[in-house]
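TA notes, week 10

Several of you asked for a full example with nothing omitted. So below is the full record: structure tokens for the whole chain, then the designed sequence directly under it. When grading your own attempts, check the secondary structure regions first.
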């Protein structure tokens, strides 16, 4: 035990001593880092004299990533930064210990170079597996090194990518995906980011130890029950066998030969795209700024402008509704103007509700709906406007299973709201049942006595409709 503690101390101490700050540069800047997803590209096997090449290579990679759907639609959600990590020598190691077939037919010169993260081909004896270190034992040390470079230089990164200055085909996934500058390396990088950032599985059979429930892998083969059931029949999505484990368990995938998680030259399948967009929304709100923002208004004058700055997908699929004192006021605009006759004496409430209506999400199928709101409380006295206070919120609303027969689970997560209400409404507009939900708690609603058919689940915060989800009762 003592020895372990000593070792731990030594490692921590070593980390502090070796803390190094490198030059960094932003190569894709769409706005504030704290409102964006931050992709950080680290150089490996580039000497400091080759940093201009590293920048050019990183820009090429970035352009390819953000011309690939759904990154292309959501490019505004991302900033990209590069960290110039110098290596003593160029390239990557190639010990030549891959299989004879590959070493003979796809030769890479044998090299042993001194590079910062020690990238090497033939990792785990696989010719094309370009990894930091030759095997798991050595890799642990290098992982500490990668972590400390990120912590010392860009601790708020969302995803890192290590770009290796080698013209030969190769790459690897894991926490820190790695790709070479071989032209196919760009597609390798995107596939590996699919694993690392979005937890997507391979849609070619990845081997028994890499199977499991994921966005794009399931042991469920029934097309009415599988998690991508609402995509079945659209864009060639179905339930395809993706191999059988030695334990005899079968695994299924949504696409067959038509997803980047199986074939590098393909796009991501609809199911993977949906999962990726869910992750974007999970991590950031499309609401960047709003005004007025917590302003106490003195000697105010009408008209008053209320404005949003939104991080928009391209094409813009964000929708907004504006509600003044419970009544619809405007929709799908980034700002409204309020004049004196619009307001009552006393407290007025203006709320805007923003959500992404992209067709890349199957709205009735995906579990979590993300909603941004801003509420302005406008205090108008007989003497005139007194104060305008504002509050923004970001909601995640979950409802599952759907379709359901006996009960549904309802949950919401919010930054600023403790309670919301859900009303279950029949197709003829009758309110069947109403339930109050509290932040972060899952509530179960008994729907066993409802007749089969389609209902709406309307979610309200302080009488403002946040979301309307279709509920199918079986
Ligand atoms: Zn896929």
């Amino acid at each position: 035990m003592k020895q372990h503690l000593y070792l731990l101390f030594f490692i921590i101490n070593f980390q502090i001593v070796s803390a190094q700050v490198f030059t960094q540069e932003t190569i894709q800047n769409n706005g504030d880092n704290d409102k964006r997803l931050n992709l950080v590209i680290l150089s490996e096997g580039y000497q400091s004299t080759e940093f201009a090449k590293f920048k050019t290579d990183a820009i090429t990679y970035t352009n390819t990533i953000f011309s690939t759907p759904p990154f292309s639609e959501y490019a505004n959600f991302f900033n990209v930064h590069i960290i110039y990590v110098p290596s003593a020598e160029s390239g990557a190691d190639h010990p030549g210990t891959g299989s004879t077939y590959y070493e003979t037919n796809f030769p890479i010169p044998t090299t042993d170079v001194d590079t910062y993260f020690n990238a090497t081909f033939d990792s785990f004896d696989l010719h094309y597996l370009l990894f930091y270190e030759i095997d798991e034992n050595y890799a642990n040390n290098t992982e500490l090194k990668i972590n400390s470079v990120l912590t010392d230089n860009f601790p708020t990164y969302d995803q890192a990518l290590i770009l290796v200055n080698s013209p030969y085909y190769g790459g690897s996934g894991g926490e820190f995906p790695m790709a070479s500058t071989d032209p196919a390396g760009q597609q390798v990088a995107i596939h590996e980011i699919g694993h690392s950032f979005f937890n997507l599985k391979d849609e070619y059979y990845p081997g028994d130890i890499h199977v499991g429930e994921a966005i794009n892998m399931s042991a469920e083969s029934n097309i009415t029950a599988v998690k991508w059931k609402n995509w079945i029949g659209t864009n060639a999505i179905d339930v395809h066998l993706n191999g059988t484990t030695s334990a005899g368990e079968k695994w299924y995938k949504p696409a067959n030969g038509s997803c980047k998680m199986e074939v590098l030259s393909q796009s991501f399948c609809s199911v993977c795209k949906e999962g990726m967009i869910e992750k974007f929304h999970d991590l950031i709100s499309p609401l960047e700024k709003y005004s007025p923002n917590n302003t106490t208004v003195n000697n105010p004058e009408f008209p008053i402008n209320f404005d949003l700055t939104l991080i928009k997908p391209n094409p813009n699929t964000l929708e907004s509704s504006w509600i003044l004192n419970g009544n619809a006021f405007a929709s799908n605009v980034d700002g409204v103007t309020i004049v004196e006759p619009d307001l009552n004496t006393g407290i007025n409430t203006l709320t805007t509700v923003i959500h992404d209506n992209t067709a890349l999400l199957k709205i009735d199928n995906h579990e979590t709906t993300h909603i941004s709101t801003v509420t302005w409380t406008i205090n108008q006295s007989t003497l005139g406007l007194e104060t305008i206070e504002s509050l923004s919120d970001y909601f995640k609303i979950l409802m599952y299973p759907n379709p359901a027969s006996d009960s549904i689970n309802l949950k919401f997560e919010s930054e600023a709201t403790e309670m919301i209400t859900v009303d279950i409404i029949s197709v003829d507009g009758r309110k069947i049942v109403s339930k109050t939900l509290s932040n972060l708690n899952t509530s179960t609603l008994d729907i066993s006595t409802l007749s089969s058919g389609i209902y709406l689940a309307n979610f309200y915060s302080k009488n403002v409709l946040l979301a309307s989800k279709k509920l199918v009762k079986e």
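Residues 1-13 have pLDDT under 50 and may be disordered. Use that as a sanity check on your answer.
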